[in-house]
Specification:
It holds the Pfam family Peptidase_S9_N. This is Prolyl oligopeptidase family serine peptidase. Among the domains are: 304 residues, Alpha/Beta hydrolase fold, catalytic domain (Rossmann fold, 3-Layer(aba) Sandwich), CATH 3.40.50.1820; 146 residues, TolB, C-terminal domain (Neuraminidase). Helix content is 17%, strand content 35%. The protein is built from ten helices and 38 strands. A hairpin with a 5-residue loop joins strand 27 and strand 28. Helix 2 runs parallel beside helix 10, helix 4 packs across helix 5 and helix 6 runs antiparallel to helix 7.
Amino acid sequence: MKSILAGVSLAATVFTLSATETRTLNNGNLVLEGIPPIPKSTVEALNQYQNVRSAPFRAFTQDGDSIYISTRFGDVSQLHKVNMPGGARQQLTFFKEPIGSIQRQPDSDRIAFTMDAGGSENAQIFILDPSSGTTKMISDGESRNGVIEWSKTGGLLAFQSTKRNGRSNDIWIKNTTSDTDASLALASEDGSWWGPIAFSQDNQTLLVQQYVSASDSRTYLVDIKNQNKTLLDGNATNVSTNFALALDKKDTGYFFSTNQNGEFSQLAYREFASNKLTIITKDIPWDVDGFALSHDGTKAAFALNEDGMNTVYLLDTATFKYEKVKGLPVGLVGGLTFSPDDTKLGMTLNTAKTPSDSFLLALGKKPLEYGKLVRWTFSEVGGLDTDKFFEPTLVRYPSFDNRDIPAFVYKPDTKQDKPFPVIISIHGGPEAQFQPAFRSTFQLWMDKLGAAVIAPNVRGSSGYGKEYINLDNGFQREDSVKDIGALLDWIATQPDLDENRVAVFGGSYGGYMVLASAVHYSDRLNAAVDIVGISNFVTFLKNTKDYRRDLRRVEYGDERDPKMHDFLQRISPNNNVDKINIPMFVVQGENDPRVPVTEAEQIVKALRDNGKSVWYMNALNEGHGYRKKENKDVYQQAVVLFFEEFL
């Protein structure tokens, strides 16, 4: 593999702008600089792909006969009710912003949900009465709120909020049956993330989660009255990941996932009286990726992440025996939820050929018994024949240290004389993982551009064990960039892939990876699309919102340390724009609290000051990514236009 530090200056590949024309679309909310007008033919060609919908499962109604889903009929996703399989979707909310998380109150159809404005992520908490359609905001309207959890009998709502000082991720409890203010249940003093998981049956104790970093998370019990907390699992000395899932029915122990005893986060149970730890899935070397406990406490359901795909199991909580649910489509699973009478298991299923839809699995009387899986929603796919969608192949390629890097490869199912151009799509996080979900954008690129798409899970990705997720920490940051160089080497060995026509695409941390790849591999790339990406780690850590800063320092390094400061400045793309010699497309949301707009502005300015070609798009009513359809449509059209011109 060519060295990551190799010089990449090729005068022949430098593109210059004749002008940086600025225009606006979508009532002035979308600002485009240096981007040519999008031809009508491009808009029409992409129309079907841009009208794909989804309908993920959100909750059961109180009687268990109907379900709540979220889907988009207008510009953003809203809450709907469905009364039967394939039934009409009755819209319940009508906001201009998409709704976030939802939790139905036990023994009631009242629903708590979150919603922010303009992508700011300062989410507020609302209570919806579906029978009347009325909503009431119960948070302060200013702070950042989320992670909502009802008490077992309803009435009390625990949530995370920054209301105390705008910085700390504290836990608060609100009595929703009165107008009294929320009370502080746990104050965060260390900059880490805290969130409620479950109330005890008597509402005196709260199971809570602390998140320090991708490799360090801890669980606690909190006495609500005096705010005293008791550590259950995890500590600063023997670092491990421990994620609380549920208290058992009698509050005698709790279920959680942990990698204390191995590489992967396995399902576990700890009994409080004896402190006995049982690793339930000790024989399965994959991460737990979802969990739900039945209302009667006799059974549970959990999902595993097996090489990027999900499998579902039923668990007998008395014996800890489990059985895999057979007959599910091969794909991704989310939203596991038991119906109020525990006779059905709701879930969201997503495959390479079907968008997220809601399904119900019939359950038997015994914990491991189940029956028929019924699909309740059939999301529109713009008239596309998704049976013809291309499914990915999982490959592993060697990197600079002989470590195998997993990647999903999508190729058009067409025969042609010349190899396919390649778009490398890099996920964010960095602790995320690419999973082969339904991706209309990839199908669009294959169909309209004739391009292959490769989505690698470079080191630092989750899903492959605790050693792998830590391989890019601190001073090892650029080792993940070397994994992209190794992928370019692998592409060169594939006769049906064109090593001379390769682009990189990514968002958030993936945006940094795009910029860094352009710095180190401009001689092997043709174009790059950076979406809400980090261009300078020092300015990013300075300007990201207060409630995130300490969490990000654990991952990227503390810029207050002189050695780390110098290292971060040295590897930051905006300090190396002289090495970028390919056209760049930068996409940003003005209200982004995670990667502030200044990260985009400074890389765009630096590139232009160096005479480099850059398209720039900024949505004034968006945050960390585009959620409004009218903005997403233009963005996707512009990306296709960009690839058509430079790839």
